[in-house]
Specification:
It is a single chain. Helix 4 crosses helix 5 and helix 4 runs antiparallel to helix 8. The protein is α/β, with parallel strands linked by helices. The radius of gyration is 17 Å and the shape is globular. It has a seven-stranded mixed β-sheet with strand order 3-5-4-6-7-8-9, with helices on both faces. The chain has a two-stranded antiparallel sheet with strand order 1-2. The chain has one domain: Rossmann fold, CATH 3.40.50.1820. It comes from Paenimyroides marinum. This is Pimeloyl-ACP methyl ester carboxylesterase. It holds the Pfam family Abhydrolase_1. InterPro entries: AB_hydrolase_1 (IPR000073), AB_hydrolase_fold (IPR029058), AB_hydrolase_sf (IPR050266).
């Protein structure tokens, strides 16, 4: 446990070697990486963080901006006396990774964005965030269940129903303040596509063919004309559940060259 401005931050730290920092998505926590960490820690020092207002980490404010999350991460790596890290961020964790990369570029060795985007919310998406916040205030349990269900296709619900239910149960532990703070923070995040074009370190985006949250075409457009590697895999938004083996193989392959 790490104390950040009187806010408790939970994280795991295992293995030895170059540092890989794992960042989960909205309504997730560091346990989303539990099947991936044992493979990575054989070659790397692996740190998995519960972001502000998620998992066992406390809330810091009414809004958790991506910059707030990035500042917290920088304080953590400074406390651990780490110089450079390879960032792997899923969905919202990718937004945080990009904010960190913009604010603290000298500390990035490489970056993987998993089912994520460098683009800001569209006007329509911002409206939907506001609607979601109102639903959360009235019935957070119903919101969480609906939000998790919407991450997966009908086929996925048949194939990985146990994993989806486990994710739902974990997500239901997220405090209302944490849910709202994250929604507010994601809503106001800025465009960071320039990082895909001009940052010097190796970058990879992993996209799901049927991801309804981060559409494949959007990811293709963002990587076009850049040196960002793009891996397209079957499935939807939570690739670590739907395509765990493929995701792990891609991550290990990338880190062998760039980690």
């Amino acid at each position: 446990m790490f104390n950040y401005k009187n806010t408790k931050i939970s994280y795991s730290d295992s293995g030895k070697g170059n540092v890989v920092l794992l960042l989960h998505g909205f309504l997730e926590d560091a346990t989303m990486w539990k099947n991936i960490i044992p493979h990575l820690e054989k070659r790397y020092r692996v740190i998995a963080v519960d972001l502000l207002g998620h998992g066992k980490s406390e809330c810091y404010g009414y809004i958790h901006t991506m910059e707030d999350q990035a500042d917290m991460l920088f304080a953590l790596i400074a406390d651990l006396r780490l110089r450079k890290v390879s960032l792997i961020g899923h969905s919202m964790g990718g937004y945080v990774a990009l904010a960190f990369a913009e604010l603290y570029p000298d500390h990035i060795r490489s970056m993987i964005l998993l089912n994520s985007s460098a683009q800001p919310d569209s006007p329509e998406r911002k409206i939907n965030r506001d609607r979601a916040i109102e639903v959360v205030k009235k019935n957070s349990t119903a919101f969480v269940r609906m939000a998790v269900q919407n991450l997966f296709s009908a086929d996925a619900h048949k194939l990985v129903s146990k994993q989806i239910e486990a994710l739902t149960q974990q997500a239901l532990k997220t405090p209302v303040q944490g849910i709202i703070a994250a929604l507010e923070g994601m809503k106001i995040r800025i465009d960071r596509e320039a990082l895909l074009h001009f940052s010097p370190y190796p970058k990879l985006m992993i996209a799901g063919e049927n991801d309804t949250i981060i559409p494949l075409e959007d990811v293709k457009n963002q990587t076009e004309g850049t040196k960002v590697a793009l891996e397209i895999i079957p499935g939807g938004h939570v690739s670590t559940i739907e395509q765990e083996a493929k995701v792990l193989a891609i991550i290990i392959g990338f880190l062998k060259k760039n980690g």
